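User: Teach me something about this protein's shape.
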Amino acid sequence: MLSLIAGLIRKSTVTLSILACLNTSGCGLSGDPDADNNHHLVELILDDDPIVIAGAKDVLINKLQGLDLKAAQESGRGSEAQYLSMLGRENLIAETHRDYSEIVCEEWDVSKDLISEIKEKAARTRIVIITESHFRTQTRAITADIAEELAPLGYGSFAAEAFRNTDILEGPAPVTESMGLPYPKRDDGWYVQEAAFGRMLRHVKALNYNLVPYEAVSRAFDPTEDFATRQNRREDAQAQNLADYLNANQGSRLLVHVGYSHGSEYTADIDQPIRQLMAARLKDKTGIDPLTINQHHCRGNRELDSPILVKKPEQQPDGAFDLYVDLPRDSFERSRPAWRLRRGDLAVDIPSELIPEDGWAVIEARRLDEPEEAVPIDSVAIRPGEDVALMLPPGRYRVRAVRPAPFE
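Assistant: First, the predicted structure itself:
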């Protein structure tokens, strides 16, 4: 369990120093916070402008204005639910959203370790493709773990459809321009601004991965075309962009982070309007058989603390993915995902000065030495009367509250 000892220290800028003890039995075996050398420090410093109104670039935060919570909770993959997940409130959609509903998958082989199996198979190819759920941020943390394990095998390029891409008329993609920074920037892509996605990118940057944008450029699409035509164009453009990158970087090894079935190698019957998704097309274009990993289908069917390999679910066609991963069942503490505590985050009280008296506010925590353009280490939406914590690793952070702009 996590125990916190918190005190408030007043300085010229308001500082909240939280001494946090992380130990399965509390602050040391004796209950003394100095015992066993197991304490960690999180320091929060209120921003110079601690409460601000969201600007034009804060599109995600402004989505909270007028958000229909009931619709968010009932929608299968609706945008309202996605906004809540991206703003740290997965707990508000977990009971009803289908990405959290239990799908039982049979354990593959208890002797097969997830990471060892991935590394063994990844060593035999140049491409590893792993999926995510856009609503369960834990999938991003698992991809970060896999990136670390693949780096010694020569994997040095990290591609994500989440990266905003550009064409020659627009200049370099934002993520390319910010390659040398230790943090991702908010305008690197829509999903990038979510805290767990940002943490994943911080990790792959620290591992010296080259970041590769490959999404289809929007200006290439004709909005009058039917959905299947536009989707086929998108899948093919994604695959071609990755194939071009591999051709230009002979010998490089590529880890690709995708949403849902874009990572499928399956080819449907000829009468289907969309026969192949990105991974299948990339395989055809390059002649390289990728290792494809599905971590979005099987969902928490047993009491787990860590993901495991499972057998192919009956609902999935043969040959779609090479490996399937089952995630631990989701649980929440102080309205936040408990998996973040298991990975070393500390549950930190939000300063009372930042809690809204009405409506929503989004609490952002950035490292002291990082600018506003940096994706926060954590950001979470909160309303009056809610028990919501920031989830932070030890360190010093600048915090502020951002209120959605009122309707004009």
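Now, about its shape. The chain has ten helices and 17 strands. The chain has two domains: 2-62+334-403, 114-326. If you'd like, I can walk through any region in more detail.
User: That's plenty for now, thanks!
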